[in-house]
Design brief:
This protein is 0% helix and 56% strand. The chain contains no helices and 9 strands. The two termini are 15 Å apart.
């Protein structure tokens, strides 16, 4: 069963905090993008933020990141080139992976 997840709001260009996830994950983007582009990013082993291929949005969207069931990742959302965004980011596990400790 999916959990309630993590909700953060971006009101300027920048990033959400990283969220530790395990397995497949749902990312919901809603609210105003302020003309900007939001990208879902993962933290790589060197702690650098890497854009996830195909995860770039300019309008409300629900994305399923189909990571393997026990894969542990840290993800965040970055918005750039926006003017006064009101972007609500909701990151939620799908319940198909192990519970994140």
């Amino acid at each position: 069963m999916a959990n309630s997840g993590n909700r953060q709001t971006l009101a300027a260009d920048g990033q959400t905090n990283y969220v530790r996830i395990v397995g497949p994950t749902r990312v919901s983007l809603s609210g105003g993008f302020g003309g900007g582009t939001a990208k879902i990013q993962a933290k790589d082993p060197s702690d650098a933020a890497v854009d996830i291929a195909g995860a770039s949005y300019t309008a409300a969207a629900d994305a399923l990141l189909d990571f393997p069931p026990n894969a542990v990742n840290q993800i965040r959302v970055d918005i750039a080139s926006s003017t006064n965004p009101t972007l609500v980011v909701w990151i939620q596990d799908t319940g198909r992976g192990s519970a994140a400790p």
